[in-house]
Design brief:
With 245 residues, this protein is of the alpha/beta class. It contains ten helices and ten strands.
Amino acid sequence: MNNYPYNEKEIKKGQTRFLFGCELTELDTPIEPKKMIEDMLDGKDPVWLPSTFDYGYLFPRCVPDNPAKGNVSDYKLPPEELGGKDMFGIDWEYVPEVGGSTVRPGKPLLADANEWYDKVVFPTKEVIDSWDWADAKANADKFMRDKDFWEIIICTGFYERLISFMDFENAAMAMIDEDQQDAVKDLFDKLADLYIVLIDKYLEVFGDRIDAVCLHDDWGHQRGIFFSPDTIREMIVPYMKKVTD
């Protein structure tokens, strides 16, 4: 690990950047955040432990899931413009007190996972291409600095997507119900194909500015996981692997 001599400027406030829909004032660090994070991922000793604020998270407004989930990185949107329909037409409700959105439970699209074949409408590549990526690219030129580590966020992965279609308890049951598991696997396989198309589009638009991809999914809570490791290995890992491969 390199030794960096202390410099008083490190505790002085530096420039301001845009993150999570708000402005963040940075400190002048000994090395750039991107270099530090790359060292950490390469197994080298980082100069400091990376935090959320050392990453540049990419949530362009043009992707319907981002304003629906309350995560927009290229515009500072008021709460009344957050929430709404995601790319599947599922309606999310933004909760300002927690800074995020949820699908109001009680009226799930699916009562049984086997219904998805008839009820779930996937966005096609043509639909994805029709989103306003030119606006996203123009805004990126304003706030995506080379010194930052930029990560695509697909903020609703496999199990979270199932929850959005079924509500939580029905989704949890579908993961272990033998009569629904095959349908869930087919759904996750098709989701993997969708996420590959979406990631390819991000790379087409933003190019080598992209350093990483986060396919966000919640598999647990404060005290443990929602289902067994074997269930995760069977029901989710193959489709995560399809995307990463």
